Amino acid sequence: MEVVSLTSLAIPINSNDSSQIGHARRLASSLATSMGFGELRIAELGIIVTEAARNIANHAGQGTILLSPQPAGRPDDEVRIDIYALDSGPGILNIPRAQVDGFSTAGTPGQGLGAISRLASDTHIYSAPQKGTILFASVSRNSESGIQTSELLTSRELNDQDRPPSCAAICIPIHGETVCGDAWAWHHTRDRQIYILADGLGHGPNAAEASQEALRVFETSWAQPPERILKEIHGALAKTRGAAVSIAEVLPDAGVVNFAGAGNVVGAVHSGGKTRNMVSMNGTIGHSVARLQQFSYPWERNSILIMHSDGLTTRWNVEQYSGLSSGHPALLAGALFRDFQRGRDDATVLVSRR
């Protein structure tokens, strides 16, 4: 089972430096090659990244392309690369029209969004006037281009209980580091999803060692309750510098999310227009924790799980993004990362919903 947490790549895009577009395409191709993508899918990924970067340069002037490798949450999941195009430009006034080939407001051929929609496995866009655009495109390793996830679900006539949860995560190291001190992973079955986010103290290789050790223990114990897993991780991290670690277990049929954490990894549930933060105990996993305790919270049908490291500030409010709480979780992850990353630490945000 492929459940290894992978670091995302961030490529700044600026209209004054056209070489950044080619750099983003080359990084995407290299990442896909390392993940076992075939030649055709690598070429299609390159087109998607190129068009997304050009859109930022032509319409917003500057922004960021994120390449986020996504591991599988169970054996039949697709390994994929998620592409985020984030900007704070003027926004897209009419998204459906902008996706039609030939439409452009910048004197370009107007084929970018159309090409992205045709080639990606899944595509979603959120845009607000004068507040920018978040474009999300997912490229699965083994799927054919142009087959959207939503179409596949419709064709199978899945009801809400049978639909797999959607999980999106962005995990970026602090500028100047090649490894991230944060790490995350998840597993899911039909009636249970469990997530971990670990933030090794500091940043760099030693922080990464601590967070990866937390994931190693998680991979052998994920079937247990969060409190039990956290206790096993606490013992294993004694040989490292330690980490802040949070684990969330969603039981949708029971309407409950169980949460256990220590340190400043945020865990929150958003539902019905309100966000409720879950309790994380004081201390450092692997060193000094006064008490490890599991707490339970209501989980409604439309709930969203949000977890992030302290590389993001806590001043966010989901309701400031009109309509985003009902969209794909990757759009909310992209918005939170774009608007609330501190820029002086590793940053990870994970969003999941059914």
List the helices and strands and how they pair.
Elements: E1 9-14, H1 19-34, H2 39-60, E2 62-70, E3 80-87, H3 95-98, H4 112-119, E4 122-128, E5 132-140, H5 149-156, E6 166-172, E7 182-189, E8 192-200, H6 205-221, H7 226-236, E9 243-251, E10 256-262, E11 266-271, E12 274-277, E13 294-298, E14 304-308, H8 329-340, E15 347-353
Antiparallel strand pairs: 1-2, 2-3, 3-5, 4-5, 6-15, 7-8, 8-9, 9-10, 10-13, 11-12, 11-14, 14-15
Helix pairs in contact: 1-2, 2-4, 6-7
Describe the structure.
With 354 residues, the chain is α+β, with helices and mostly antiparallel strands. The protein contains 8 helices and 15 strands. The protein has helices at residues 19-34, 39-60, 95-98, 112-119, 149-156, 205-221, 226-236, 329-340, and strands spanning 9-14, 62-70, 80-87, 122-128, 132-140, 166-172, 182-189, 192-200, 243-251, 256-262, 266-271, 274-277, 294-298, 304-308, 347-353. The strands form 3 sheets. Strands 1-2-3-5-4 form a 5-stranded antiparallel beta sheet, sandwiched between helices. A 5-stranded antiparallel beta sheet has the order 6-15-14-11-12, with helices on one face. Helix 1 (19-34) runs antiparallel to helix 2, helix 2 (39-60) packs antiparallel against helix 4 (112-119) and helix 6 (205-221) packs across helix 7. The longest helix is centred in the first third of the chain and has 22 residues, at 39-60. It is globular, with a radius of gyration of 20 Å. The two termini are 22 Å apart. The model is unreliable at 1-5, 102-110 and 147-159 (pLDDT under 50).
